């Protein structure tokens, strides 16, 4: 770990990385992150989750020490409490909503807007509860179209819909996670790496001095842009190809194992 003495900041994904299978930050991981903060490292949490969900899983003690990146980068809160919000254009949102309605897949779409989840059908939560903390607010298609969407979620959508959406990659940021059963759609150029880069610029930090931890495809952009990247032992196989190193799984405190070594090395 001596060659990593230039690391100044640490970025952590949550699910499958900092959280274990029980969706808890272990005592060892908690202590390692607090030690790293006290040692002078800048800390970032970068997740697909909304703020309300993160606040139920991350202690206030730790949240007070980190800059938080939500919705894969579409909503950001820096360590001083200042926020940045990036939304999908109204035209693009309307097109996606119409597409789901035309194909009778209204129970497969939901929209995150400023920390509130909206959907068109009660069936959305019944079918996709594992991806949601609480049931969404049910609205009509016209009402859904009026929202400023930080992120659009598509669950188990048909291959026809997927093909249509993938043709819009130039206009939207699209990530497939959870075994490709979930499509997460943000505005063009929105990503975890863009959010981290914006925060690092404020802190006069180089992306070369950032170490990122992750396990799924929405961490790939961070792996490509940070100076060092750590894949969890449970990470999707192809992500490991882009990692500087691999650690133990999220159930084996893989994050803490690396952070502890990093603290000692510095």
UniProtKB/TrEMBL annotation:
It comes from the Bacteria. Its EC number is 3.-.-.-, 3.1.3.-. PROSITE patterns: COF_1. The keyword Hydrolase applies. The keyword Hydrolase applies. One of its GO terms (molecular function) is hydrolase activity. It holds the Pfam family Hydrolase_3. Keywords: Hydrolase. PANTHER family: HAD SUPERFAMILY HYDROLASE-LIKE, TYPE 3 (PTHR10000:SF8), PHOSPHOSERINE PHOSPHATASE (PTHR10000). This is HAD family hydrolase. It comes from Sporolactobacillus shoreicorticis. The lineage of its organism: Bacteria, Bacillati, Bacillota, Bacilli, Bacillales.
């Amino acid at each position: 770990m001596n060659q990593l003495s230039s690391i100044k900041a640490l970025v952590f994904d949550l699910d499958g990385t900092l959280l274990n299978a029980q969706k808890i930050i272990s005592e060892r991981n908690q202590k390692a992150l607090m030690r790293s903060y006290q040692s002078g490292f800048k800390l970032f949490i970068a997740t697909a989750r909304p703020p309300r969900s993160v606040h139920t899983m991350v202690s206030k003690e730790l949240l007070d020490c980190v800059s938080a990146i939500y919705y894969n980068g579409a909503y950001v809160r820096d360590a001083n409490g200042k926020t940045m919000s990036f939304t999908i254009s109204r035209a693009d949102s309307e097109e996606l909503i119409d597409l789901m309605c035309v194909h009778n897949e209204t129970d497969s779409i939901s929209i995150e807007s400023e920390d509130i989840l909206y959907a068109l059908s009660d069936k959305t939560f019944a079918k996709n509860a594992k991806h949601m903390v609480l049931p969404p607010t049910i609205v009509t298609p016209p009402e859904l179209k009026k929202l400023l969407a930080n992120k659009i979620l598509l669950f188990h959508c048909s291959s026809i819909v997927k093909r249509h959406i993938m043709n819009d990659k130039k206009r939207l940021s699209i990530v497939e996670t959870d075994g490709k059963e979930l499509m997460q759609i943000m505005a063009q150029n929105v990503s975890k790496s863009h959010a981290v880069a914006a925060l690092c610029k404020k802190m006069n930090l180089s992306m070369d001095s950032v170490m990122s931890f992750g396990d799924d495809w929405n961490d790939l952009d961070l792996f490509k842009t940070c100076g060092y990247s750590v894949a969890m032992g449970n990470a999707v196989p192809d992500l490991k190809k882009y990692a500087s190193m691999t650690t133990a799984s999220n159930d084996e405190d893989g994050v803490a194992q690396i952070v502890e070594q990093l603290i000692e090395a510095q």
